[in-house]
Amino acid sequence: MEIKKYQVFSPDTKCSVENCERNADYEVYLYDYYAPPLNEEFIEQDYTCPFICEIHMNENEVKSLGEKKPRRIVTYPYTNQHMAQGYTKYLPVSEAYSEIFNEGLIVNNPQLRIDFTDINKELIRYIARNPEIMREINPRKFEELVAELFNNKGYQVELTPRTRDGGKDIYAIRKDSIGTTLYVVEAKRYSENNKVGVEIVRGLYGVKSAERANVGVIVTTSSFTQDAIEFASPLKYELSLNDYTDLKKWLIEYK
Ligand SMILES: [Zn+2]
């Protein structure tokens, strides 16, 4: 596949983010595709930010908004400034330009492969090292992160729009030989001192009952008030409260 490029890389190419003096770690691409039956892929070097350092790459992903699905638009702080359809992918420059990094070695047809860095994995490792970043990311992004953590634990996950506040509920389904369990999960990206109160827990319990789900799960970047904990404690098979410490453990367990 011929990839359209706007800027060539040399060993002293810097990150394209304004005023960033760091070396480029990744080449950046705009990627899009038509879902089956077309199965057509589009890929070109990112016009506004062809190269990026590790730190800005992580920031770019953490602050991205939108769904990485065919023909959708994802917004980023640094890449895809013209809001083209598609989303950003990264390839380490050492792989994209292996002929430069492996001087003297014979490189057979260094054609760009499209098995890019798995950004989910990279990003979650980054968050695991810097868990406090979870308190700064967009609440929508935090919902996606929680959904991904459940997905990684082997649950079937669905993010569905909640009508009133524009937030999303996460439905996680676990199937095994004994049966199927439905979890309705609510993610609360709160600052450290803003504890999740009993009204939120009671609200989720109501949703769980109305939806005929088996367990209501709250996941937060803060902790729970005493009232909330007391409300949930006799309902331990129906409610599961998970705080910042639990989240940090899940991030470390991420495979
Ligand atoms: Zn940078």
UniProtKB/TrEMBL annotation:
InterPro entries: Restrct_endonuc-II-like, Restrct_endonuc_IV_Mrr, tRNA_endonuc-like_dom_sf, Type_IV_Methyl-Rstrct_Enzyme
An example Gene Ontology biological process: DNA restriction-modification system
Coiled-coil regions, chain positions: none
GO molecular function: DNA binding; restriction endodeoxyribonuclease activity
Signal peptide: none
Residues covered by the Restriction endonuclease type IV Mrr domain: 135-251
Keywords, alphabetical: Plasmid
Superkingdom: Bacteria
Name the UniProt record assigns to this protein: Restriction endonuclease type IV Mrr domain-containing protein
Naturally occurring in which organism (per UniProt): Priestia filamentosa
Organism phylogeny: Bacteria, Bacillati, Bacillota, Bacilli, Bacillales
